[in-house]
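Kindly draft a polypeptide, keeping tokens residue-aligned:

***
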Amino acid sequence: MIPELKRTVIVVHRWMGTTVCLLFLLWFASGIGMMYWTYPGVSDEDRLRHDPPLDAREINVSPEQAYADLKTNQPIEGARIAMFDGRPAYHFRIGQRESVVYADTGKKQAGCPLELSSRIASAWTGERTAGQVETHTDQDQWTVPGNFKALLPLRKYSWPDGRQVYVSTVTCQVEQDSTRRLRFNAYLSAIPHWLYFTPVRKHTQQWSQAVIWTSGLGTFTAALGLVIGIWSYSPSKRYRHAHAPSSIPFAGIKRWHIIFGLTFGVLTCTWVFSGMLSMDPFPSLQQGDPEMGKFRVEEALRGDAPPLSSFTAKSPSRALQETGTTFHARELRLTSVMGQSVYLVTANPKETLIVPVLGRPATEFDRKEIVDVLRAAARPFAITEVRLVTQYESYYLDRHKVLPLPVVLVRFSDPQESTYYIDPKTARIIERYNSSLRWNRWLYHGLHSMDFPWLYKYRPSWDILLLLLLTGGTSLCVTSVLLAWNVLRVRVAASLGGHSKPPASHAN
């Protein structure tokens, strides 16, 4: 019974390995690239960096008047002021769309004519001319993520130095930006690692299922290989190799495959499995417990959406003047925090100011008030821990050091031990965890990226460890490909009337 089981496991592993070995090699090799490069994109930080500072003297229209100029009865979900086409403008978010009203004249921007998108592309890149333009009604290699579907058609602007910028005719904003070097790096990292190949990735559901199933089958294949390696290994060295006692009964490539498998087999299993977790294959587990939402923490911090009339007491231009001459504001967000109407003014992601409609500017909200609001929102549960986090830790970590510090940690006594990290400069929830989500932090981020504070703190420790592990995994995959080639070559030769048995050095 046991010999038959072993033979079955070996056969299954051989053919499954032959099927997925190239994909494994692609994942491990591109994982090295993912340590330093990724897929190009445009973040909120990029937008702030490209926007020129606002000038208080140019904002002449009140928020109420700007909204009235939209001539709509739909409620707004967000409002901010930022530069648009060289002029200050209100950006009202209504549903999934943003409507733009110029803050100097009150005129609504209608559509996205070619002349406007060309100016926006030129201003973004600093080029005098807009470059060559193409209109894309379908996604291409650099717009394959699913969120780009709602932004079509896109105008692609290209320059001789390889710079490419995509402006959406829906938002009339730059939605993608890349250079020749960024695109080349993406081909060595994110595109093969995430299977971001245009014919596959543009179909989001099918792509997601393909990644989940292939990584799941890959995990199973690697686990079988690890079992075979353990079965084959003899601590007493009862085999012989090169006229000497050996723990491994094989020679040639198969011997190296067993050695690499025993050394990096566990890594291969956990790494492919943790990669599968990035696709949320178990939504009910990875989304956390619904009890977490009952606290309505975010709603408590924000309060009810403020009426635009509440900003009459202090106009946007006055709020800008109160920030001072050395603070170069690029965005004013009209919002409510803990029941009071405020302007959140941003110069860059690390430089913000709070300008209350009734009050003086401040660099952060009162931490005690934040905790008191959360304590009231969490009833009947209590707060079990409050502390100021001044450096990255196990559940609040960022290799690129973009997440803000310090933040306020608040933990509750509910069964899920819900925990929030809140930025006191904006009263915004930066990270949240409960017992249903903590396991995902370790099984995905921990196992897949070696996302551990002490490794990040003492770099290049993280780089050295990951390069060692990924190189070992890549070596294992190379031997898998060579063995798969031998299997297929022998089968093809047999079907053509050649030898039907593999060479002795590769026999089981």
